[in-house]
Amino acid sequence: MPTMFILDGKPLSPDRSFTHDGIQYPANWLRLATLEQKIAIGITEVPDPPFYDQRFYWGHDQDGHLIPKDHSQLVVQWVAQTKDTAGSLLSSYDWYIVREAETGKPVPQEVLTYRAAVRTISDNREVIINGTTTTEQLAAVITGDFNGLFPWPRGPFDPAPVSDEDTIPPAIDNSFVGGTTSGSISDPGNDVVVL
């Protein structure tokens, strides 16, 4: 179990120098010191506090229970963030709308479909966020990425996602070991230099 070092009621970082009783200890002292040496100057080790998501909780109380942030304020914050994300996704294609208004050239159907999908996803996410009644529910919805039900759509002209197969390098052709090979198509008796 990870632990942290406490001296005079304050946590110490293992890789930082510190001063105690007028003595400067180097940055690696905590890593190199024995347990007896640490105890001798008053250092204690305590378990690291449990992890918590700072977006939703203030920390733990003395009994180890999470202290939730105000649910209603979080709902306002997450709805605003959803709207910001939707706005950002839509703004990349706003120029099509402006072009149509100025020149009459129609917006491609793929763009209209994408923009409608972004607005629908945003609306659905907002309904779910507003439907939560506790901070715990809201945290579960957000960290669970809405159970995968409402992912943001990919832009109509964005490149397709790269699959694992696309990242495997092609096999190396070892037929040209040493930079030359015997023969060529035009003159099988001559060596061909490969650059």
Question: Can you describe this structure?
Answer:
- By secondary structure, the chain is of the alpha+beta class.
- The chain folds into two domains: 3-48, no CATH class; 53-169, no CATH class.
- Helices cover 37% and strands 15% of the residues.
- It is built from six helices and nine strands; from the N terminus they run E-E-E-E-H-H-E-E-E-H-H-H-H-E-E.
- It has helices spanning 29-32, 35-40, 71-91, 94-103, 109-131, 135-143, and strands spanning 3-7, 10-12, 18-20, 23-25, 44-47, 57-60, 66-68, 180-181, 192-193.
- The chain has a three-stranded antiparallel sheet, with no helix packed on it. A two-stranded antiparallel ribbon has the order 3-4.
- Strand 1 and strand 2 form a beta hairpin.
- Helix 3 (71-91) packs antiparallel against helix 5.
- The protein is elongated, with a radius of gyration of 31 Å.
SSE string, helix = H, strand = E?
EEEEHHEEEHHHHEE
Task: Specify the biggest β-sheet.
Answer: 3 strands, antiparallel
Structural class: alpha+beta
Apparent shape: elongated
How many β-strands, per DSSP? Answer: 9
What share of the residues lie within helices? 25-40%
